[in-house]
């Protein structure tokens, strides 16, 4: 075997061997990579080609200095070694929030991992430190400057965290340091109505077992109960109330009344064992809590408010005030498993008024791999698999050529003829790991009400319900729109596939653009958490057109950004791209194998790039000449003065605050134009606070040019305020009587949803009628009930329902998919 072939085929083993024997090349390579001038400072990047069709990226730019031993040192390097021999590095934007006025707050990720010399899993408890924060300001010419907030790490737990250790201090190092008991990493972020930003959760690092004074142990990452608030007016952090539960990787959503909802997260990531509370062991935090915006306190939502969810669950606020879970999350392999993870495939909503969850359906299509198909896929793709034959085949895949066509590859692995479309649908259903979830523009109906919410997810890794892992390893290119129709408390769920991404993508950052498109940036060709360091980077962006529901390749970035990358819409309609803080190669130390075609693993990347989309290169963008700076959700009208007479779309886009592809408050709302007078449009505001929760928004107008392109303006800032005299709750906002689409059904809303999913009429395009139990496309699960037995029962029903159905339907399927795909249409005849 050729030497290069050997490296290509077994990089993981090679990396481990190199580190274990401590050969200098690997280590020197690591330090070399970290210390060499990698040139993030302005001027060193390759400018991407300027092209009117695909847009272009700016040169990368990064903070110019590092603080070392009390001094600010100017350097183009990512890290500098301090007097103690530890590397001090520039932070990356693993979390970012758009503050307005050209300012961006960003938070580092995995601070300290660069100091793991042997294995991060053994040393992270000791070498990790609290993550830094930064405010970057871009002036009118894009010249950046940086400010360090005070305290720079957010200030949680200065006297240590009250850790949930198993050994009470006997065999852990939870109390030996106060430098890593309050990390911002793994917190979710949300804007409060007044423009301050709250970070909830975070990390307490320690070794368990571990012994004080020893540099190695088994790391534990424990979720914090902390919530801390950043004030952009003073660049300072302050502490707010503690949650009842420590949460690592939770998600936040602002409710219609401006309170903040939190769900999921795990208390102990690696050893989720809680002897005093056994039912909590082995899973994420099922309890949800609500933050009282007036008092700054958290309260438990009670037993009906519990739900098993993946880490960083993708959640959004619906126009009826419910919180919708869109069956996406962070597939954190190999430690994010939970015994109840089958439930993560079920989409549902949380009603803040009744504090109860309602199940809406099985995510994606009513298709599911049967036991055989599931087994074949999951065992083949599960990296912990020990079957040598399959491992050989898997490894061949992992380290061979990048999978351009995972469907074909999977078909090949299965050695079974498979209908491509059916397989595509099956692997595109259920929960997605590491996908973005973008709420498409909420559009008013003829009466100005908002009743149909659409959510786009694309790429990520599929989930295999019965597998021992919450996610697959190879990303998919599937793209899906899930629709929730709301009429007060009545809801219906529907899902359809769109055109696929042009390449499978793990951890792509999605951005809703003001021209009715969604862009995706960065990410990897494989799951960079399962086998860290072995993912290839994807630098090419893609654009999804809402009208055609197709994806198109766009410009390529300069830098490779895989895990912990970010992208946010800037107020002028361009996009700020940043982040990239991978987990140490193979959970050991940073070993950069980028020359072998893998992503850049020379530590984290502190740089940013600005993407300019085609519309921002035009000189015929409309201009907002006058618009309100504050709007009340009272159903009133307001005027926008522009330089054109053909403005036909007005959007309010909420400023983004995001981490891990999650922004629970991401929303784009179209306001109806009710009148126009030459260059002035009169626009109607909603009276529904669940459509436009209080906060900071960007107002964009646009028109469609003669060449067919939608051309948006730059935005003006708008603060949305609640009308204190409006007493209607979102649930009171019902549809006007007799919706137009009702087709031969007297329950109009549901009737309008009856129809075929997809284009064909085969058995794999089942009729979907949520209103009728007999033809329901989903197992009827009911709501999560109080306490343990019900929860376990829920899991049992979920599994049982699925397997019962497959038994009956398997024989009626077309030959090509027999033995692999089942659907739920025949549920009534179960047995
Ligand atoms: Cu992470």
Automatic annotation (TrEMBL):
PANTHER family: LOW QUALITY PROTEIN: ALDEHYDE OXIDASE GLOX-LIKE, SECRETED PROTEIN-RELATED. This is Galactose oxidase-like domain-containing protein. It comes from the Bacteria. It comes from Marinobacter lacisalsi. Residues 142-166 are annotated as: Disordered. Residues 621-720 form the Galactose oxidase-like Early set domain. Gene3D superfamilies: Galactose oxidase/kelch, beta-propeller, Immunoglobulins. The lineage of its organism: Bacteria, Pseudomonadati, Pseudomonadota, Gammaproteobacteria, Pseudomonadales. Coiled coil: none annotated.
């Amino acid at each position: 075997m050729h030497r290069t072939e050997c490296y290509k085929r077994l990089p993981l083993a090679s990396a481990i061997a190199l580190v274990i024997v401590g050969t200098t090349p690997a280590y020197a390579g690591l330090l070399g990579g970290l210390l060499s001038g990698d040139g993030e400072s302005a001027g060193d990047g390759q400018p991407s080609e300027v092209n009117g069709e695909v847009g272009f990226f700016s040169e990368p730019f990064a903070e110019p200095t590092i603080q070392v031993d009390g001094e600010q040192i100017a350097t183009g390097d990512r890290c500098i070694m301090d007097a103690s021999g530890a590397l001090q590095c520039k932070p990356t934007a693993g979390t970012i929030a758009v503050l307005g006025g050209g300012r961006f707050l960003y938070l580092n990720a995995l601070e300290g991992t660069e100091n793991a010399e042997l294995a991060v899993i053994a040393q992270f408890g000791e070498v990790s430190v609290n993550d830094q924060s930064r405010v970057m300001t871009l002036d009118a010419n894009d010249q950046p400057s940086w400010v360090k907030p005070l305290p720079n790490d957010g200030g949680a737990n200065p006297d240590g965290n009250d850790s949930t250790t198993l050994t009470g201090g006997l065999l852990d190092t939870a109390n030996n340091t106060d430098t890593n008991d309050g990390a911002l990493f793994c917190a979710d972020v949300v804007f409060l109505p007044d423009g301050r930003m709250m970070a909830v959760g975070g990390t307490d690092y320690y070794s368990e077992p571990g012994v004080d004074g020893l540099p190695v142990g088994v790391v534990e990452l424990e979720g914090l109960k902390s919530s801390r608030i950043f004030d952009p007016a003073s660049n300072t952090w302050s502490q707010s109330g503690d949650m009842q539960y420590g949460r690592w990787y939770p998600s936040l959503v602002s409710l219609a009344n401006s309170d903040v909802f939190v769900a999921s997260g795990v208390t102990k990531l690696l050893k989720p064992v809680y002897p005093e509370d056994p039912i909590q062991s082995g899973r994420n935090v099922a309890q949800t809590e609500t933050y009282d915006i007036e008092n700054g306190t958290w309260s438990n939502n009670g037993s009906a408010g519990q739900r098993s969810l993946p880490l960083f669950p993708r959640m959004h606020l619906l126009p009826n005030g419910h919180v919708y879970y869109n069956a996406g999350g962070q597939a954190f392999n190999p430690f994010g498993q939970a015994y109840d993870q089958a439930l993560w495939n079920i989409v549902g909503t949380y009603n803040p008024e009744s504090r109860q969850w309602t199940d809406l359906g099985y995510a994606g299509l009513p298709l599911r791999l049967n036991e055989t198909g599931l087994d074949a896929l999951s065992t083949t793709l599960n990296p912990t698999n020990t079957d040598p034959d399959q491992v050989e085949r898997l490894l061949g895949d992992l380290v061979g050529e990048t999978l351009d066509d995972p469907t074909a590859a999977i078909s090949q692995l299965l050695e079974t003829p498979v209908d491509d479309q059916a397989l595509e649908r099956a692997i595109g259903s259920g929960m997605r790991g590491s996908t973005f979830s973008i709420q498409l523009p909420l559009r008013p109906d003829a009466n100005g009400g908002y009743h149909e919410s659409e959510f786009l997810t694309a790429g990520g890794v599929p989930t295999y319900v019965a597998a021992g892992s919450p996610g697959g390893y190879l990303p998919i290119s599937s793209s899906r729109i899930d629709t929730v129709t709301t009429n007060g408390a009545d809801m219906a769920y529907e899902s359809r596939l769109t055109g696929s991404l042009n390449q499978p993508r793990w951890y792509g950052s999605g951005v809703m653009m003001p021209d009715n498109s969604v862009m995706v940036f960065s990410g990897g060709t494989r799951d960079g958490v399962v086998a860290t360091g072995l993912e290839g980077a994807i630098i090419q962006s893609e654009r999804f057109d809402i009208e055609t529901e197709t994806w198109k390749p766009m410009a390529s970035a300069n830098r490779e950004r895989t895990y912990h990358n970010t992208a946010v819409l800037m107020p002028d309609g361009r996009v700020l791209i940043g982040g990239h803080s991978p987990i140490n190669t193979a959970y050991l130390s940073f070993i950069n194998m980028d020359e072998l075609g893998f992503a850049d693993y020379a530590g984290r990347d502190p740089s940013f790039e600005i993407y300019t989309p085609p519309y921002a290169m035009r000189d015929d963008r409309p201009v907002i000449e006058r618009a309100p700076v504050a709007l009340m959700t009272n159903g009133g009208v307001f005027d926008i003065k522009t330089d054109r007479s053909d403005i036909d779309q007005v959007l309010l886009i909420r400023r983004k605050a995001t981490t891990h592809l999650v922004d629970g408050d991401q929303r784009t709302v179209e306001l109806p134009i009710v009148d126009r007078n030459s260059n002035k449009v009169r626009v109607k505001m909603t009276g529904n606070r669940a459509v436009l929760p209080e906060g900071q928004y960007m107002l964009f107008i646009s028109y469609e040019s003669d060449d067919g392109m939608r051309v948006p303006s730059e935005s003006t800032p708008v603060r949305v305020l609640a009308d204190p005299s409006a007493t209607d709750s979102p649930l009171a906002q019902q549809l006007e009587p007799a919706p137009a689409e009702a087709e031969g059904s007297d329950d109009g809303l549901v009737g309008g949803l009856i129809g075929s999913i997809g284009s064909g009429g085969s058995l794999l395009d089942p009729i979907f009628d949520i209103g009728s139990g007999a033809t329901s496309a989903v197992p009827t699960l009911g709501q999560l009930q109080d306490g343990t037995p019900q929860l376990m029962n829920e899991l049992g029903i979920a599994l049982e329902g699925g397997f019962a159905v497959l038994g009956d339907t398997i024989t009626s399927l077309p030959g090509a998919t027999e033995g692999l795909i089942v659907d739920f249409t025949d549920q009534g005849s179960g047995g």
